Automatic annotation (TrEMBL):
Residues 1-62 form the Expansin-like CBD domain. It comes from the Eukaryota. This is Expansin. It comes from Solanum chacoense (Chaco potato). The keyword 4Fe-4S does not apply.
Amino acid sequence: MKIKGSKTGWLPMKRNWGQKWEISQQLIGQSLSFQVQTSDGKWVQSDNVAPANWQFGQTFEAKNNF
């Protein structure tokens, strides 16, 4: 899994436990995009999933499926 803030490039995330992922970079105040690698090695990209004013604990839904 990778994450991209509106002011950063793509950054790899680290699996913490189960479906929980983390990153040490501060991305507060940035809109967030994600890339997920499928089991066949393809990357699925979801742009601007969370707006710049996101808050911890919120959930968002991307427009693409995989």
